[in-house]
Amino acid sequence: MQQYSGRLLGQRVGLSAWRHVAIAISNRYLNKAFGDDVGEDGEFDEDEEGTLDNIWDLQAAHTTHVAGLVYARELQQGPSGTAARRDQFRSASRSWHRFFGFGAEDQARGAAVAGRKRKPDVFDSIREEARFRRFARLQQVGIQGQLRVMMGPEAQFRGMQEQVIRAVVRGESPIVQVAGTGEGKSISFMLPAFCSPDGVTVVVVPLVALRDDLSSRCERHGIEAHVWQRQGPNRAAAIVFVTPESAVTEGFRTFINRLQARGQLDRVFVDECHTVLDSDRGFRPQMGELGGALQEMGVQVVFLTATLAPADVGEFYAKMRLDGRRVRLFRSRTIRR
After folding, report:
1. Distance CA 203, CA 49 (A)
2. Both 151 and 288 in a single domain?
3. Which residue of 104, 125, 272, 284 is 20 to 30 Å from 113, comparing CA positions?
4. What range does the domain containing 50 cover?
């Protein structure tokens, strides 16, 4: 063996070295090439202790456990344990990650690299089913009655509030609501979140003072709200407020991925959306990226404003990457024409 290997391979390989080489080849190529499913084609036998042994290892006159401990060990492998056991632990850990919705962005990236879509697992089905049930319950809610529960017994819809909220409940997207200041546009995201607190509504707000005021109003009306921050812990809530600059960051994208992996993200609102028309390279340039970020989220999107003139609609649609033929526009009388 040493004579021929030295002549043909340029490296003398003895019997002891060949045992390591043969097992390494078997682990990397043969098991995968010819199938390694437990119980199929008699490839696994069970020893006296109930441990499954691979037929490739039995043919080499040792158990799979001994093969993992002694032969063809990787350089980076620790002194104890086997590569097969490590892979089993990794598989168990990934199951826990999918259950909790961790690493959704890594799963998506891995599937893209492999050139195929990740196969849905049981946790995906459970989360999607929970999301559909939540939407079904929302569509059965009496929104007039829930408005009174949230705002008080004398509360009534004003202007186009009810029409917009019914469109939101039906899941129509994208929606643009143009209504004057003081006409209660915030009810469009507060009431659906109040009726369905298990889901998450993201509200993009360009003004910090307005964001803090809206958050306080939500808390007063019994709606759990959270202000997303780049630094510090962030959590899911019925309504999550975020600035446009933060909404396009990688950190917020990771936060959104986790919500989607858990089936929690229902919709995104953009308040004071007309401010995107004022953004340029010198003033709030990140707002120009907001349209692309919203498309990636793939959920219902609603835009709120009091000052979107008809002449500016085309430019607004272009900046937010909206197809004007699909937009549901609700416009009430405003001062600006």
Report:
1. 58
2. yes
3. 125
4. 2-100
- The residue among 100, 115, 138 that closes a domain is 100
Residue 111 domain flag: no
Contacts of 300 (CB under 8 A, 6+ apart): 168, 171, 172, 173, 174, 175, 266, 267, 268
Alpha-carbon distance 286 to 276, whole Å? 9
| CATH at 301 | 3.40.50.300
Distance in angstroms (rounded) separating the CA atoms of residues 255 and 190: 21
Q: Which two tokens stand for residue 209?
A: 């003072």
pLDDT, one tens digit per residue, over 125-137 is 666 777 788 888 8
Please tell me the predicted confidence (pLDDT) of residue 98. Answer: 65
pTM of the model: 0.65
Q: Could you tell me if 65 and 82 are in contact, meaning their C-beta atoms sit under 8 angstroms apart?
A: yes
The per-residue pLDDT for range 275-312, each reduced to its tens digit, is: 999 887 777 888 888 999 999 998 999 999 999 999 99
